[in-house]
């Protein structure tokens, strides 16, 4: 569990000073346009922080998580190994190339969300959990520590995700067991992104606008090149990342399960004219037993706003269909459609 001992390792007070400095000393940062900052350590003790998390999920769909309890060395090692991998010669990376109809491997974008045709960057996608379903032929042996590093990283992130899902279930007023059971031993996939510097960056997108299809995404900004933007009230808002924080967003599945109370928000990345950028998005899906639909406790008042699918494979099927007809996955899940 993400508990106190793990949080201690992070030296949280330093992070909090950074946040305050960011908010109060930087005239360029309009606080009202910044996604909420949630302090995981405070959740152990403070009700206020629970309220903040609820609003973040309802009104922003995005937040930055500080004091998340993942040891700094686990994160730093992941950053190093990932950059080493992307630096390898193309032939070597191509040994892990994605197959024409596959999802995993090195190459170009995959099926988890639609409209990615114009993405400009390399990505490397791996199914990371459950560990028994890993397809090791895609897991690089160079750098030699890569496999062990990703193993540790994926387990740590699963813990954070599980903890957040539990807090969200409490906030939704749902029996926390229903939601947490569905994410227990859930599937996790890691998408490692490498966006080159691009002088004409304004015409090309790192990742074109999309919502994430999963339940919950944890994003690690590997080097501090800012590029992520989210759509809010019809406008694109750049995110100013806080060093050490994970950027978390609600995916389509949690929007559906919360019966629309929590929002899966559109986002994109732009390219930087001078600097290449690396990031790792870790996607968390429910387990194979879970039905994908609004939680029973949440449909009593207004009725269900979304369909219920009998399992995650049906959901991926619909995702494929959405990709082909260009409509969003959520469009297909909404009952009036
Ligand atoms: C994604 C994503 C954002 C980023 O991989 O789905 O939104 O900053 N990534 O790389
Ligand atoms: Ni995304």
Automatic annotation (TrEMBL):
Domain Fe2OG dioxygenase, chain residue ranges per copy: 186-286
SUPFAM superfamilies hit by this protein: Clavaminate synthase-like
Keyword terms of this UniProt record: Iron, Metal-binding, Oxidoreductase
Gene3D superfamilies to which the protein is assigned, alphabetical: B-lactam Antibiotic, Isopenicillin N Synthase, Chain (2.60.120.330)
MF terms in GO: metal ion binding; oxidoreductase activity
Domain of life: Eukaryota
Family of the protein in this entry: Belongs to the iron/ascorbate-dependent oxidoreductase family.
Name assigned to this protein: Fe2OG dioxygenase domain-containing protein
Lineage: Eukaryota, Viridiplantae, Streptophyta, Embryophyta, Tracheophyta
């Amino acid at each position: 569990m993400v508990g106190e001992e793990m949080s201690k390792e992070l030296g949280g007070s330093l992070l909090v000073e950074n946040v305050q400095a960011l908010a109060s000393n930087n005239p360029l940062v309009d606080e009202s346009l910044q996604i909420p900052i949630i302090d995981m350590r405070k959740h152990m003790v403070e009700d206020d922080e629970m309220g903040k998390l609820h609003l973040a999920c309802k009104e922003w769909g995005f937040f930055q998580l500080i004091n998340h309890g993942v040891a700094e060395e686990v994160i730093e090692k992941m950053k190093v190994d990932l950059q080493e991998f992307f630096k390898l010669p193309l032939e070597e990376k191509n040994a892990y190339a994605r197959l024409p109809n596959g999802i995993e491997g090195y190459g170009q974008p995959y099926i988890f969300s639609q409209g990615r045709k114009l993405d400009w960057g390399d990505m490397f996608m791996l199914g990371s959990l459950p560990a028994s379903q890993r397809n090791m032929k895609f897991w690089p042996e160079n750098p030699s520590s890569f496999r062990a590093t990703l193993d540790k990283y994926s387990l740590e992130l699963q813990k954070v995700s599980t903890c957040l899902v539990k807090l969200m279930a409490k906030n939704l007023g749902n029996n926390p067991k229903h939601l947490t059971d569905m994410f227990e031993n859930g599937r996790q996939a890691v998408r490692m992104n490498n966006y080159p510097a691009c002088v004409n960056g304004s015409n090309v997108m790192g990742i074109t606008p999309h919502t994430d299809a999963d339940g919950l995404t944890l994003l690690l900004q590997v080097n501090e090149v800012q590029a992520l933007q989210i759509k809010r009230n019809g406008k694109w808002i750049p995110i100013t990342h806080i060093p050490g924080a994970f950027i978390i967003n609600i995916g389509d599945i949690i929007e559906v399960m919360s019966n629309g109370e929590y929002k899966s928000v559109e986002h994109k990345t732009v390219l930087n004219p001078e600097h290449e950028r690396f990031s790792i998005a870790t996607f968390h899906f429910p387990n194979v037993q879970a039905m994908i639909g609004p939680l029973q406790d949440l449909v009593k008042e207004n009725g269900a706003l979304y369909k219920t699918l009998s399992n995650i494979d049906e959901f991926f099927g619909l995702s494929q269909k959405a990709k082909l007809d260009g409509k969003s996955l959520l469009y297909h899940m909404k009952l009036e459609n």
